[in-house]
Amino acid sequence: MKHNKFTFLIAFLLFSLRAFSQFAVSFPPERIVFQRNKEDFGYIYITGTFTSPIDRVEARATSRAGESGTSIGWTTIATNPVSGVFSGNIGLKGGRYDLEVRGLKNDVQVGAIQFISKVGIGEVFYIVGHSNASGGSDLSPSLGATSDQVSSINPNTNKPLWDQYWLTANPDNLPPLQFSQLCQTCGMSPSADIPWFWSQLGDKLVNALGVPVLFYSAAFGGSNIEYFYKSAYDIPFEHSFIKYDLRMPYANVRNGMNRFVPRTGLRGVLSGHGVNDIKGNDEEGTNFKFNNGKVIEKSRSEAGYQDLAWMIAIACRNNDGVSSRIAQAQNEMVDLSNNIFKGADLNSIERYGTVMENGVPKDVEFRYDGLHFSTYGQAAAAQKWFEAITSTSPNFLSESEPLMASAPPLPESPLPVTLLKFEGQNLANGRNRLTWTTTMERNNDHFEVERGYNGISFEKIGEVAGVGNSTMVSNYNFTDEILAPVAYYRLKQVDLDGQFEYSRIIAVHGDAEDKNAYIYPNPVRDMLEVKGFQSGTLKSLKILDVSSTAVLQSADTEKINVSSLVPGHYFIEIKNEKGNTVVRKFVKY
């Protein structure tokens, strides 16, 4: 009884797995934020796979309770998808939604509805800078976002992998597109391990704008804009911990722009450089302006978007005060016609100041060492960035040209080979020519051609190499030398890992050149003779049972003794010295 229950459980699980895999969504992931345009509108891109036939894919988006958004009902996003994959999109107003996707065939749902929660249309920012943009001191701990609508890709979820990233700068060692709330212990890929004050900025923006916010960060403590410039343009430099050979620190911009930004889009870059570029000479301002301009140019080139917006913070205060040269350079860089905007005025945050707590003024330290922000300084910095982003003169959000998300690549087809057709034709010389066409191949090693005479049992008669991986149309052919009144064929498609699947079975009816060949007597009890075979000297006779298994064989003779066979139906293969083969069916009694 236990065995029966176990068998039933396995069968149920297998059935459930098949049912589930009939239709699946590959993209988007939960909590993703797609950049909205200046009209508060954006697109959610959707891709997925199916293993059962569908002729339509629909999606609907429902705004979440207590959050902004305008729901839409079931909307067709793809029709007549092929090769087991689909893609489409829906346009939505800014806000956050629960997304549902379903596949249909003749208006009947196929598989289960797929549900993806907390999909957003909002604001996406990319942070660059030094330690006052990345944080990291125990003297000034970070706060996590209070709003669930502030997100990042947290690199701390897989520390060993992220450690490898810092040793290699290989973007494959960055996290996948998996988003989470920007919590107190969460970082921001590619390079930040804590939220710093950006979580507080996110809360302010969500509250004011009513849309979700996503942060990426390439901030690198100890760096400056000069190192970003040199690593971007392959100009060697020496540094105790910034690895030029990995093209750090700019590699964090390049990798994030290539790996993450195409999927989400981007409002712009928030730059906090300046303090570490103070050199105390007359050229520091000119050099800062040149270096930052070249980094902007490179980032736009690698993002493939010449209008990529930058906000340049006014930030060059340290223990010696403010560098007027760099502050002037930062202000001079602002050029609205070139999508460069004035960022937070961080110079206005001095070391000491006053805050109001419970309605009472309190003297506090904003920079615990004269440069880096304290917890009070973090709150002040978040407020300064908020004011810069939401300022009405000019308004960054209405004046900038955001980089919109692009459609993701199609997922791999769940079908290793998509067979468009498989046909057979009897040629004038009596041979059978098989042809087949694929429209997609994935890890396809080869095809084995199998033949049978009863449509049930088959044997391998040849092999044709596959193209491996292809999304193009591929044509194949194989000629069977056998001469038979009817033969059945199927293809065994074999993957590189040895897994295989069979095609449908086709039948080819022949008109063999040895159509006068016959066997006698039929039915037969003992001695079977071949008569009328015209195309050369007989080489061999082979007796096959109905499973196409050879049970008798004779060489260089026109007779074969079948008395040892049990009564039933058999086939005889008659082959000459040229390799020509004729098949006839007989009955043994």
From TrEMBL:
InterPro entries: Secre_tail, SGNH_hydro_sf. Pfam families: Por_Secre_tail. GO terms for molecular function: hydrolase activity, acting on ester bonds. Residues 519-587 form the Secretion system C-terminal sorting domain. Residues 1-24 form the signal peptide. Coiled coil: none annotated. The keyword Signal applies. Keywords: Signal. NCBIfam families: Por_Secre_tail. This is Secretion system C-terminal sorting domain-containing protein. It comes from Dyadobacter helix.
